[in-house]
């Protein structure tokens, strides 16, 4: 198994959808009430056959309508999915949300966090910062459903002068620790709180690799590169016209 396949399998475990259905090797996902595409998009097999598209898309469309989310197909640019991506492009499906998946191998230490970072269960401080940073309308469903399904969830809060200023979420799977929801309140940006969170995350991971996802246009990618994260691959979503 290569890194791409391992990370895609880890992502399904670390960010588990509420409902799944298999159509051959295709995975249909749904998480009612939570709008993230990662847990609602169709995940094709590594060697997806474009000839299967009519049947798969009919079932995926019915599945999406049943569970109340927009239909989308997650595609990666590696060669084995190029025919699928081309077939969807020919059908007029547009490409949205290009994302890089970054990996940080274990055994490469980071400087000790420059701020106090707490690591533990979900608390009010984490929720307040997260809600202020992301401003989503699906927070209740995310907390009550998605976070509860995550394996080994750990909630990180970085504080300065005792005040919570930045947060992150870890989800552990065999050999890997995923980093999600890194966010800093506007008043505390540029002070190194995100670096402190990732340093603490590396301590938690120990001999496991850290990985995370970041939009290709997100300037945070430069920070992650400085902290030893390297691009493993990218993915995006095809959405129907």
3D structure, described in words:
The chain has 241 residues and is an alpha+beta fold. It has two domains: 3-99, no CATH class; 104-233, 3-Layer(aba) Sandwich (Aminopeptidase), CATH 3.40.630.30. Helices cover 32% and strands 30% of the residues. The chain is built from seven helices and ten strands. It has helices spanning 3-14, 53-67, 82-90, 124-134, 139-149, 193-205, 220-226, and strands at 19-23, 26-30, 73-75, 94-104, 116-120, 154-160, 163-173, 176-184, 209-215, 230-239. Strands 3-10-4-9-8-7-6-5 form an eight-stranded mixed sheet, sandwiched between helices. A two-stranded antiparallel ribbon has the order 1-2. A hairpin with a 2-residue loop joins strand 7 and strand 8 (176-184). It is globular. The model has no long low-confidence stretch (mean pLDDT 92).
Brief summary:
It is built from seven helices and ten strands. The chain is of the alpha+beta class and 241 residues long.
Q: Could you outline the blueprint of secondary structure elements for this entry?
A:
Elements: H1 3-14, E1 19-23, E2 26-30, H2 53-67, E3 73-75, H3 82-90, E4 94-104, E5 116-120, H4 124-134, H5 139-149, E6 154-160, E7 163-173, E8 176-184, H6 193-205, E9 209-215, H7 220-226, E10 230-239
Parallel strand pairs: 8-9
Antiparallel strand pairs: 1-2, 3-10, 4-9, 4-10, 5-6, 6-7, 7-8
Q: What ranges have pLDDT less than 50 throughout 5 or more consecutive residues?
A: none
Rg over CA atoms, rounded to whole Å, is 18 Å
Provide the CATH superfamily of the largest domain: Gcn5-related N-acetyltransferase (GNAT)
Structural class: alpha+beta
In total, the number of strands is 10
Summarize model confidence as the mean pLDDT: 92
- Shape, please? globular
Tell me the number of helical segments per DSSP (H or I, 4 or more residues long): 7
Report the major sheet: 8 strands, mixed
CATH architecture group name of the largest domain: 3-Layer(aba) Sandwich
The proportion of residues in beta strands is 25-35%
| CATH class term of the largest domain | Alpha Beta
Q: Give the termini separation.
A: 34 Å
């Amino acid at each position: 198994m290569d890194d791409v396949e391992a990370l895609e399998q880890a992502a399904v475990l670390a960010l588990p959808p509420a409902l799944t259905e298999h159509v051959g090797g295709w995975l249909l996902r749904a998480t009612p009430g939570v709008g993230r595409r990662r847990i609602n998009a169709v995940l094709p097999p590594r060697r997806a056959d474009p000839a299967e598209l009519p049947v798969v898309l009919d079932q995926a469309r019915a599945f999406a309508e049943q569970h109340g989310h927009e239909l989308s197909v997650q595609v990666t640019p590696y060669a084995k999915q190029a025919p699928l991506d081309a077939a969807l492009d020919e059908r007029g499906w547009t490409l949205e949300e290009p994302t890089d998946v970054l990996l940080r191998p274990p055994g490469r230490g980071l400087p000790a966090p420059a701020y106090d970072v707490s690591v533990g269960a979900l608390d009010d401080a984490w929720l307040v910062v997260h809600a202020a940073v992301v401003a989503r309308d699906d927070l209740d469903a995310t907390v009550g459903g998605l976070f509860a399904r995550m394996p080994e969830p750990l909630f990180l809060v970085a504080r300065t002068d005792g005040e919570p200023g930045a947060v992150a979420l870890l989800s552990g799977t065999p050999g890997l620790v995923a980093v999600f929801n890194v966010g800093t309140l506007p008043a505390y940006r540029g002070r190194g709180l995100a670096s402190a969170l990732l340093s603490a995350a590396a301590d938690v991971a120990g001999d496991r690799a850290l990985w995370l996802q970041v939009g290709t246009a997100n300037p945070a990618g430069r920070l992650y590169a400085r902290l030893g994260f390297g691009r493993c691959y990218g993915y995006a979503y095809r959405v129907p016209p």
